[in-house]
Amino acid sequence: MTVSERPVPGSARQKYAVPAVEQMLDIVEYLARNQHGCGITELARELGISVNGVFRILKCLSGRGYAEVDAGGAYRLSTRFFTLGMTLQARFELRRRARPHLEWLCETSGATAQLHGLREDRALVLDCVTPVAGVFLQVLPGSLVEVHASAFSKALLAFLSPDEARRHLPRKLKRFTEHTVASKEKLFEEFSRVRACGLAYDREDYIVGIYCIGAPVFDLNQMPVAGVGVTGLVSLLNPGTQPALERMVLTCAERISGAIGYTGDCYAAWKRQIR
Question: Is the pLDDT of residue 5 over 50?
Fold first, then answer.
């Protein structure tokens, strides 16, 4: 945002504006456009921010490793922004590589196929493919859902270290239905079962009448990076159809994992357990 793009008085944007954050973003965007580096005085003049304000923001950015200064006093953005960008790129690359396999899962199963990642203590819907059917569940990509009640995030959390998994759980587990696991002790017991079979379940944990079956997606470092699976109506799930769905979910997770570099053989062992 440049000086000429200040929020219109009375607008929603102005209502929720935080001046220090706005100024920091102005500086970051200006430095991104001027990679040769800029001095404090130049930034203050071009952006209409006080010299002292620019100085304090740059000191904060450099202290956190997001900016660096050369011998002449010119500031530029550091490679830490590149690292952040690559993190986002990896997320979008996962979504791109997963898409054809999600479409296969949706078409083969006749159920909605979803791909979830983690975002702090929530699950982020990375993608969703819906079937050609009269009734189906649709979840919008970009939506955030509770990690402890979702089969997809439970499939991911189960393969993190216990400490890392706890960091992604909310302080208190909210109960959505009578089936929701609202005890962390019981949730970690469930994680143990997920590790044994490779599958996580939402048996009306989140919404009455809705089931989900999820499996973990691993990257080339054999780290869990997402959960993938199917969502549908409980009335359409029965002992005769469930094993086939479970194999499809594991096959989809295996294909996505292979597409991003995973070379392990856990999926074959898990599929052999299904009867």
Answer: no
* CA gap 32, 35 in Å, rounded: 6
Q: How many CB atoms lie within 10 A of CB 16?
A: 8
Taking the C-alpha atoms of residue 175 and residue 212, their distance in angstroms, rounded to an integer, is 17
The band of 205, judged by pLDDT with boundaries at 50, 70 and 90, is very high
Long-range contacts of the stretch 16-24 (C-beta < 8 A, 24+): 20/57, 23/47, 23/49, 23/53, 23/54, 23/57, 24/57, 24/60, 24/61
| Helices 40-47, 19-33: crossing angle, 10 deg rounding | 110
pLDDT single digits (tens) 210-236? 999 999 999 988 999 999 999 999 988
Contact 7, 14 (CB under 8 A): yes
Residues 6+ apart with CB under 8 A from 31: 37, 38, 43, 67, 75, 76, 77
Nearest to 169 by CA among 205, 127, 214, 118: 118
How far apart CA 220 and CA 274 sit, in angstroms, is 26
Query: What pLDDT, on a 0 to 100 scale, did the predictor assign at position 262?
Result: 92
Contacts 24+ apart (CB under 8 A), 35-39: 35/76, 35/77, 36/74, 36/76, 37/70, 37/72, 37/74, 37/75, 37/76, 38/74, 38/75, 38/76, 39/72, 39/73, 39/74, 39/75
Q: How far is CA 256 from CA 99, 128, 144, in A?
A: 9, 14, 22
